[in-house]
Write a structure and sequence with these properties.
Elements (H helix, E strand, L loop, with lengths): L1 H19 L9 E4 L4 E8 L5 E4 L2 E4 L10 E9 L2 E9 L6 E5 L8 E7 L11 E2 L7 E3 L5 E9 L5 E5 L4 E6 L6 E2 L7 E8 L3 E9 L4 E7 L4 E7 L9 H18 L2
Parallel strand pairs: 1-8, 10-18
Antiparallel strand pairs: 2-6, 3-4, 3-7, 5-6, 7-8, 9-11, 11-16, 12-13, 12-17, 13-14, 15-16, 17-18
Helix pairs in contact: 1-2
């Protein structure tokens, strides 16, 4: 009976977690604008992350504040597994990657890419290059599959492809990295393909749904692109799983007291 109670509790937690997190309308985690123009960006984190980094600056998330020398940052957590973040400030030429991280990389980093004057300003060799036209928040509400791309400049860059909220490394290759290909362990990954040019390589990954919201990422071991794929709107899910959780708890209580 104790095992049944634990199973009910675990299932209720999973259902409630899945219901609470949802994409914010209009959120792309891509920031474009003229240098010195004002911006406001609202996004969501799947957990309360520990720090936000901008270049070499690292600032903790504490007491609702995560402001850096580049922008003002506020966050709020009204329900579990859904942390809303609001960034406001002015676009500067040196603003490129904004990255939210957890201690010991427990969860996959959540990134925002900044394009001053609409251009990607980072020319670092063998580095990850975001695409201003490909949002990091993907609404796949009517799709069975999605194709996500990551481009790395250089002829033999360090490449990591990750999946899930925990940032599991599925594929790894490149300079000084041990080759890894464990796609067969992750049924949500249908295919990983690559296309090379004289100065870059682009990896295209085809994914199918695993959870209502899935995470997929790429890294050059220094920076990350993390895609949040929402396959289905939360909608009534915010209500249904709550009542289902209550029903499960009632059933488990009745079963436990009947013994």
């Amino acid at each position: 009976m104790a095992g049944l109670l634990l199973l009910c509790a675990a299932l209720a937690t999973i259902l409630q977690t899945d219901a609470q997190l949802h994409a914010i309308p209009g959120d792309t985690r891509i920031l474009k604008g003229d240098v010195n123009s004002s911006f406001e960006l609202k996004t969501v984190l799947p957990e309360l992350y520990d720090v936000v980094t901008v270049g070499k600056e690292e600032v903790p998330l504490k007491d609702g504040d995560c402001s850096t020398s580049h922008f003002q940052c506020k966050y709020s957590q009204s329900v579990s597994y859904h942390v809303e973040v609001l960034l406001t400030g002015k676009i500067s030429p040196d603003l490129k990657w904004i990255v939210f991280k957890t201690k010991n990389m427990t969860f996959i980093p959540i990134t925002i890419a900044v394009f001053p004057n609409g251009q990607w300003a980072d020319s670092t060799a063998d580095a990850l290059v975001p695409n201003a036209s490909q949002p990091f928040v993907v609404l796949a509400h009517k799709n069975k599959l999605v194709k996500l791309q990551c481009t790395f400049n250089g002829v033999n860059p360090k490449v990591q492809i990750l999946t899930s909220l925990w940032g599991n490394v599925v594929f790894q290759t490149g300079k000084d990295l041990q080759a890894i290909n464990e796609t067969e362990k992750y049924p949500e990954i249908i295919k990983i393909g690559s296309r090379k040019s004289p100065s870059s390589v682009t990896y295209t990954t085809t994914l199918k749904r695993r959870f209502r919201i899935d995470y997929f990422g790429c890294s050059d071991t220094t920076n990350w692109i993390t895609y949040m794929v929402e396959w289905e709107k939360s909608g009534f899910g915010l209500i249904k799983p709550t009542w289902l959780c209550i029903f499960l708890c009632m059933v488990c209580t009745v079963l436990s007291t009947s013994k």
